[in-house]
Specification:
Two copies of one chain form a homodimer.
Chain A (H helix, E strand, L loop, with lengths): L9 H23 L26 H18 L2 E6 L5 H10 L2 H5 L7 H10 L27 H9 L5 E8 L6 H6 L13 E8 L15 H10 L2 E7 L3 H29 L7 E7 L9 E2 L2 E2 L18 H12 L3 H4 L8 H4 L43 E2 L1 H15 L4 E4 L18 E2 L14 E2 L4 E2 L4 H13 L3 E7 L7 H14 L11 E6 L17 H5 L7 E4 L4 H13 L4 E5 L5 E2 L4 H10 L1 E3 L13 E6 L1 H17 L5 E6 L17 H8 L5 E5 L4 H7 L8 E4 L10 H8 L3 H11 L3 H4 L1 H21 L17
Parallel strand pairs in A: 1-2, 2-3, 3-5, 4-5, 9-12, 9-13, 10-11, 13-14, 14-16, 15-16, 19-20, 19-21, 21-22
Antiparallel strand pairs in A: 6-7, 8-17, 18-20
Helix pairs in contact in A: 1-2, 1-3, 1-5, 1-9, 2-3, 2-9, 6-14, 13-17, 17-18, 19-23, 23-25
Family (chains A, B): Belongs to the XFP family.
Keywords (chains A, B): Lyase, Thiamine pyrophosphate
Protein name (chains A, B): Fructose-6-phosphate phosphoketolase
């Protein structure tokens, strides 16, 4: 076998280096130039952009990886994508995409000639143009490069169930310091060499972040080697700065790694034994801003933090700097790289793969192209039988689990379920009948006892919401489907990932060449109202406020009140594309309010009057009682029962909301109700008591522009809670049946006077309930067994 | 030296094991018992709690660590605290705190006798009582144990600048899978053996999470060893299940580690050379639910996931289970451990340290006790001179940096500054004149060139917001002060940490024995309105919505409009206690609106009319223009200038808000304005155009109950942005001067008719601005140079 110094012939070496020079030239060009793109005339101030933006530092290193991957894609006909962790170095991805011709295919005005190149340069980091990091506009990218930390989990998500795919994942040494990245290395314990593809992580020891050395570049070689051995990888080191030598080393090492990946996969696939191997990874230590200016004004630039962004500034005003830029650009010899028209010369062009093998054009990086809709079982077949409304209890998520089990069965290798050690705790364990939990780490005999561990499981569990969300995103971005369940209070751990994915989806709406991808379906469970036993720290229903800040075009929030509604909502979400669907539903046993037929009708409308709870038929109601969420709905129904008994003349209209955005105006959200429809539901002037699952301000935000808004009184979580019983927790936040009745009495004219004795009775109930809870540790009458005794549908 | 089998004499071994039995007995007791605490009569169903809650699994292992630490505290007079990463195992911390007597000191009714023990048992996970994880109510704890992942960063934060302190940090193997924990191991690159104390991390390989094996317990011994060598530690392994042997191993190993820590510290302190050593850490592999029931109903419990929470359930109804509980409890022989009164026998009591040396009573774990107020320079001395209002530009954070520099100087080893690789980028680099950045990883000669690296820096930079926030929390919870600056768009990374710390502070208000601690001071900078160049993904001002969901008692939000106001606000925040202060201020050059004297007056009020921008003196205004935030304030002032020119008769009142909670009602927030004061500022019926930094709904939320609310029209970030110029970004979100003027024209009666030509002119300005931006890449008239030409103060 070749060694590290002669794997490339002189000719091949020359060509590869020339191709790399072209990458670097383009990377630098897009940062600086708005004219004279090929330097065919002397560089003048007028050719330089008015505002210099972009990140040069990691570009040459990233392009170095890309061109060497190209060689192997061609040699072995590999199916590979590129994930750029140091995503601010978008020029590398952009340059390669342009050189491969795919950029011009999707953006024809950025043609492969001088005119196109100029447009390609000018748009970069330019108003109305594209960003300086890998955004959704970047062909070949599934990884938003603005926020750091998720490249590796995205890469693993991309290769799950794509046995032929290799994700070349460049991990920046800055990014490597983030928590999400630091734990994502353990993804190798969840990768099956038979059914999954492979990730080739390349830690790019670029040396510096914005202003500091990176930690991993400043520990000993031995520590670094131990760290990756400890993470379960076989690290290979490529270190240096002399291009020719580095090309030889890199060619040798990457080939070694690809060969090793193929050997591992073949061995596992031939033997049908999926064991965890030592997957290869590469540590590439190369100078920051490699091939860029060595120094400027006597200060070190290359291989230093000064090379991070724009290495030479003040170019239009300083002739010396302008000259330095020209000298630097000319060092790439563009005249040797591009032909008369401005296109890459044919001799170099043939170094890149063609068609779908180009990493810029690989359909996995535009996953909607590969997406096959889920084969869906009839969700109605999993319905809970309802003899009487609001009489029987069942765990909604348990019922959902029976449905998801069959979704798994029908869609093996196209659908995965994600959850942080909580799938069973969240009562979705029926899924295990269809498939176990992926586990490639060591096993023990006792795992047979209910462990449900499997080398090819469809359930992904790791105690890292970051990694799970990253895997899930990578999985859907490459054309598959999934479902994530997580504890409500700690879903804030991935607030920032939610923001970024929602922004990705929102910006994709403007990009015609991106095919629709499956929605992210996020079930939030273990809800605040059943965190009475875990207490204050486990009570936070505020994720919805983060969600509601994002574009209405891409976010959906559903609060199915019971198991049948949850089935209907989940079915809808699993079939949808390009959304971030948030479903809020608790795991404990809860009342089933509606039979399946009614549930479908109700969920299809998203909001509606429940006639069987209302008694305003044929007359104007005195009060509207509205609700959203399972427990708040139960308490609202229970409040109506009390009011019916104690104040039988009171005319009540009862409204339940499943699709939260129905509350919004149709001008502001595609699901919004027209004003006239809202008015006919909520009246123009009657008091509305709204019992809400989350913080009350969200309902005000959504209903802000409605005519009757000033009469809407919202109850929700008030950040009150310690160790309580279920009823006590509701009481201290005012969302319980008794306080709701008091709200009605306080707001319906005359009731304050005529129902004063009822109010006294209600207060007494509250007092006694709390006293009992503190004495016995449980509810007096366990509210988790309460039933509706009123009329039926 | 002793070896692993004989470090403890038989007598000492017996005592230590007996003390440990007492811990385990108490841990189990608090999960199960509401009567018969010492098992002095036969166990009956009526002694068992009605609802069984709590986590048994990690308790014995954690107590095992605690009792062995006790031995060394006594032997070497160590100053140590205990941080419980697997925080749901609070029974271990609680049991030890009770045995040491400190629990009874702070909660006298939980006395060291049978009556007190019963109360101690019953309150656990009981309505009105305490939680099942380490909450603020737990003496000896600074670490909320509900959400996992922050134990190690808290531990490091605690020992920074406390050279004698040792933080015994138990890291759960579940928690170890989280991202924040996985990167926190690198904290050792920031620990100085001379000025800082030491962390002794103990990875507790308990084997299982709720339902799954933990990853680190299922990789090879060699991989585990490599991993911690790679992280830069020297791992020591204590593995087994036989108590006597394990006691010997643990006593030997912990002593080895403590000796090693002392050697490292002595060497560094004697030589005055701070280098990064291989700090010791321990891997403790012990059975989950150790010493608990081996099996129940024929199913494996000890050393399995079934031991995670309540190992034997259904106790009141199953006599067999009741019997199993009794057998298990009696295995600890409580009659040998507690005397007639129910107190721990004297022979065992003497095993624990006394006074402040008890880990439950160590004042570092109640940091307010040690807290010394900062020595503050006069912030007025750093004021920007203002000849004319709104005429000169300066970076507010740069000015703040000059002030913080002297705060650092005056408070060396009592104050630290935190930032993710961004202190310089955030323009706070003046601080480096006082102190560099802590860095104990390797250095290179080139670091002398502006690197500002120091082994004893006051500035903490790592590309992990999680680790920084964890350090900061640990630092203030142990009695010190700090300041954290971070990018606005990515502060969502620590949403969940914010939530937990805010909840910690809120619950501490009810705990008399906890002394006040310094506030967390979080500067959010690199704000949305100057992320025109980074684009959409870098634009998210929504952290404030997360903040506003938390208890008004503990959160504060300040939006100083300029440098002088920022100084005043920062001074106020640095002196405060028990808050989470959020300061929103951009790093770019911005207008200075107020001289120092006016700034102080304005910030003291928190909200106020700016007379020099208003022209309604002596008359009712036609419109109120209000604003909060630096750029929105500039645009609002610029809008007034346009309106004054174009519609000179229009009477405008101009209001600026610094303290966001002034907008709230005084009944809802301690900073809230009384209704009468709000009405006199905002009028009862005039249109209010409010230009807001963040999403507009927050202003509606805060002003919801105000009389003039329906006339308040808020402009804010609308989730619109790509690559823009500063002005274009404002325009597409409607917060720019031109759109504000249009808002005024649209809302002031008659102006729609009389000022139609002005509106046309404004629309033309907008169109031309955007066209210019897309052509030239910069603003037409760079708004970053705009000046107020109106009257002066």
């Amino acid at each position: 076998m070749s060694d590290q110094t002669n794997v490339l012939s002189t000719e091949e070496l020359g060509k590869i280096n020339a191709y790399w020079r072209a990458c670097n030239y383009l990377s630098a060009g897009m940062i600086y130039l708005k004219g004279n793109p090929l330097l065919r005339e002397k560089l003048k101030a007028e050719h330089i952009k008015n505002r210099l933006l972009g990140h040069w530092g990691s570009d040459p290193g990233q392009s170095f990886i890309w061109v060497h991957m190209n060689r192997l894609i061609k040699k072995y006909d590999l199916n590979a994508i590129f994930i750029s962790g140091p995503g601010h170095g978008a020029p590398a991805t952009l340059a390669n995409s342009y050189l491969e011709g795919y950029y011009s295919e999707v953006y024809p005005d950025k043609s492969c000639d001088e005119v196109g190149m100029l447009k390609f340069f000018k748009q970069f980091s330019f108003p109305g143009g594209i960003g300086s990091h890998c955004t959704s506009e970047t062909p070949g990218s599934i990884h938003e490069g603005g926020e750091l930390g998720y490249s590796l989990s995205h890469a693993y998500g991309a290769v799950f169930d794509s046995p032929d795919l290799i994700a070349t994942c460049v991990v920046g040494d800055g990014e490597a310091e983030t928590g999400p990245l630091a734990t994502a290395w353990h993804s190798n314990k969840f990768l099956n060499p038979i059914v999954d593809g492979a990730v080739l992580p390349i830690l790019h020891l670029n040396g510096y972040k914005i202003a500091n050395p990176s930690i991993l570049s400043r520990i000993s070689h031995q520590e670094l080697e131990y760290l990756f051995l400890g993470y379960g990888y076989q690290p290979y080191f490529v270190e240096g700065h002399e291009p020719e030598l580095m090309h030889q080393k890199m060619a040798h090492t990457m080939e070694q790694c690809i060969t090793e990946i193929k050997r591992i996969q073949k061995e596992a696939r031939d033997s049908k034994k999926a064991v965890r191997p030592k997957w290869p990874m590469i540590v590439l230590r190369s100078p920051k801003g490699w091939t860029g200016p060595k120094q400027i004004d006597g200060k070190k630039v290359e291989d230093f933090w000064r090379a991070h962004q724009v290495p030479i500034s003040n170019v239009t005003k300083s002739p010396k700097h302008l000259e330095a830029v020209e000298e630097w650009f000319k060092s790439y010899k563009p005249e040797e790289l591009f032909d008369e028209s401005g296109a890459l010369i044919a001799e170099l062009k043939e170094l890149a793969p063609t068609g779908d093998r180009r990493m810029s054009a690989n359909p996995h990086a535009n996953g909607g192209k590969l997406r096959k809709p889920l084969l869906m079982p009839r969700f109605q077949d999993y319905a809970v039988k309802v003899e009487k409304n609001a009489h029987e209890y069942i765990s909604p998520t348990h019922v959902l689990g029976t449905f998801l089990k069959d979704v798994v069965k029908k869609n093996l290798h196209n659908f995965r379920v994600f959850g942080p050690d909580e799938t069973a705790s969240n009562k979705l364990d029926a899924i295990y009948e269809a498939s176990g939990k992926t586990w490639l780490a060591d096993k023990l005999p006792e795992d047979e006892d209910g462990g449900n561990l499997s080398c090819d499981g469809r359930v992904m569990e790791m105690l890292s919401e970051h990694t799970l969300q990253g895997w899930f995103e990578g999985y859907v971005l490459t054309g598959r489907h999934g479902f994530f369940s997580t504890y409500e209070s700690f879903v804030h751990v991935i607030d920032s990932m939610f923001n970024q994915h929602a922004k990705w989806l929102a910006s994709c709406r403007e990009i015609k060449w991106r095919a629709p991808i499956s929605s992210i379906n996020l079930l939030i469970t273990s809800l605040v109202w059943r965190q009475d036993h875990n207490g204050f720290t486990h009570q936070d229903p505020g994720f919805l406020d983060v969600v509601a800040n994002k574009s209405p075009d891409v976010v959906r929030v559903y609060m199915p009140p019971d198991a049948n509604c949850l089935l209907s909502v989940a079915d809808h979400c699993l079939k949808s594309v390009n959304y971030f669907n948030v479903i809020v539903s608790d795991k404990q046993d809860h009342l089933t309010f509606l039979d399946m037929e009614s549930a479908i009708a109700h969920c299809t409308k998203g909001i509606g009057i429940w006639d069987w709870v209302s008694n305003d038929q044929g007359v104007e109601p005195d009060v509207v009682i509205a609700c959203a969420g399972d427990v708040p709905t139960m308490e609202a129904v229970a409040a109506v029962q009390i009011l019916n008994q104690k104040i039988p003349d009171l005319k009540i209209r009862f409204i339940n909301v499943v699709d939260l955005y129905r509350l919004m105006n149709d001008r502001e959200h595609p699901h919004g109700l027209r004003d006239s429809d809202f008015d006919s539901l909520f009246t123009m002037d009657k008091p509305v008591i709204f019992n809400f699952h989350s913080y009350s301000s969200l309902i005000h935000k959504l209903t802000y522009s409605r005519k009757n808004h000033s009469n809407i009184h919202v109850r929700g979580y008030k950040e009150k809670g310690s160790i309580n019983t279920p009823l006590e927790l509701l009481i201290i936040n005012g969302v319980d049946r008794f306080n709701l009745c008091i709200d009605v009495i306080d707001r319906v004219p005359h009731l304050q006077r005529t129902a004063a004795h009822v109010k006294e009775w209600l207060k007494q109930q509250i007092l006694e309930s709390v006293t009992y809870a503190h004495t016995e540790g449980i509810d007096r009458d366990d509210i988790r067994g309460w039933k509706w005794e009123g009329k039926q549908q």
